Known about the structure:
The protein is an alpha/beta fold and 312 residues long.
Amino acid sequence: MADCFRDRPLPLPPQEPTLRFAPSPTGELHLGHAASALINKNIAQKLGGRLLLRIEEIDLGRRRQEFVNGIYDDLKWLGFIWEEPVLQQSERLGIYEDYIMRLRSAGLLYPCFATRKEIQDAAEKNNSPRDPDGAPVYPNLRKHLNEEEVTDRIARGEPYALRIDMEKAIQEAQRIYGQREMAYMAFDSKGIIRPTRIDPAKWGDVVLARKDNGTSYHMACTIDDALQGVTHVIRGKDLEVATDIHRLLQILLQLPSPLYHHHGLIVDQDGRKLSKSANDTSLKYLRENGTTLAELQKKLDALLSSYSDFEL
Length: 312
């Protein structure tokens, strides 16, 4: 194993430790969100660092103001104290567009005019592999349209997304990164830091700018972490695979890379990850039906106690 991949403690990033909790206002927060918020809160306190709240609301069609208000109410109940002002992604679409244009100018993005049905049909016909989220890897429909046709379609008002040309992007990132295996630094619940290799190719030509709002979760999350000076990203295990895309973007855009930790998930009786549609586990439901904060923390004790001797 190469020297750069030996397990070893590494120094903290030079700036003040900065953590963030970044929920989406598309439903009510549940026990899984509470666990993530409390882990962020506890580790921020141990590091003597800053704690930010970010509202990740690029999905404007599903955003509801009552869910934004509910996030504030739930976090106050948890004793989660954040810095003001709260960053709201819906107010930053122009910032994301600037970074998207950098990638497009470098020839790493291309317009995709295919509909979901066309993609699904082509994927089924060609037995396309699935990405880590379970969606079909893009089957390269009309990927290599000539410039004249692209210009004509855009002029006609045809909706399109911007996809990353993954093969080109990896080649460019490797050129920037050098002759090392691309990786990010991850820490466990005890604070031990290890490098984690990335394999963004398994995502295929993922969308980086959606048709409806001009950006994507991957772009907005990566850019905001960099611009907010986030040094430690602590989020659920279900988002671990997305870090391959985020690290690739950091390399391409030459943005700083935080330390990452992906904690265990709270699951239901059938072993499934909790959903915002499961009202019986929502923090609002628990709070309004007499659950105390101490009782809630007891529900999460197995996960939270694993960080009792955390030291970074």
